[in-house]
Amino acid sequence: MNSSITYLLFDLDETLYPASSAMVEEISRRMTRYVSQYLKLDEDRAARLRRELSQKHGTTLTGLMTEHNFNDPEAYLEFTHPTDVGRYLHKDPELASALSSVALPKSILTNAPQEHALRILEYLEIAHLFERIFDIRTNDFRGKPEKDVYHRVLSELNRKAPEVLFIDNRIDYLQSFQEIGGKILWVAEEDPKMSPPEGVPRIAHIKELPGFLTNF
User: Which CATH class is domain 22-85?
Assistant: First the structure.
């Protein structure tokens, strides 16, 4: 293992469980529905706008607040994140053992709310492996990939960027962290049409993390 890495920072959704999970589709459906209702758009137009806002601002919520005078982020977060997570996820008995085999401290950095993160972590039976959860409220509802988010989290953890490995499913979030000197790892299920940009290592599933670190 690369001895310069002293801390692991994990994304939550589509990273600690596969992007093919029904949870991903459900959250997306709810976000589109919320945008549709708030802006009085049909759902096709709302879906396109939601994707544009996410790509431009990092999250749909930040985009709504920045471009559409939206001022009720708590209502948005409550609506878009289901409480019955067992309907959309499958337990993986190998997940906890894979993560616990990596003897480094770990925290979560997510653009979701903390309560959603806790529900996911508890359902997957891995909550005990993480020291802290940094959620969308950490930086006043402005999330990844804004560099201020990363700087704040690093300060809270008392770590320097080069000693932290950040693990996420979105390239733009990873590249922003890399730009401040951090180390990165992309989690993306195998797709022959997709390849990581130069300098972005990739694993297909988070359970591959121990092997990756052994050879890193």
Answer: mainly alpha
